[in-house]
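pipeline: protein-struct stage 2 | run 1193 | Antitoxin-like ribbon-helix-helix domain-containing protein
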Amino acid sequence: MAKKNLADALQIASGKPATDERSPSPAQADDKPELPPSRQGKKAIAGHFDPAVSKQLKQLALEQDTTVQALLAEALNDLFDKYNKKPIA
């Protein structure tokens, strides 16, 4: 007897026909979700800071009519420059 996944069991219980065993369910698919063009080839960088840091950064972005991401890129490039590295952010 073939194993059934939860999605198939729920479909059977609801009276709907089970999915075709030859086509994988979304959870079984090996494909990663498509990224927007602005994120393709990019890598996220994160850190944990006091909530006041986040608030102040967002306020600064509003005041400067820019984005938090643009401000972070500027800050990273300044840091790279300080340590004689190429500003690539």
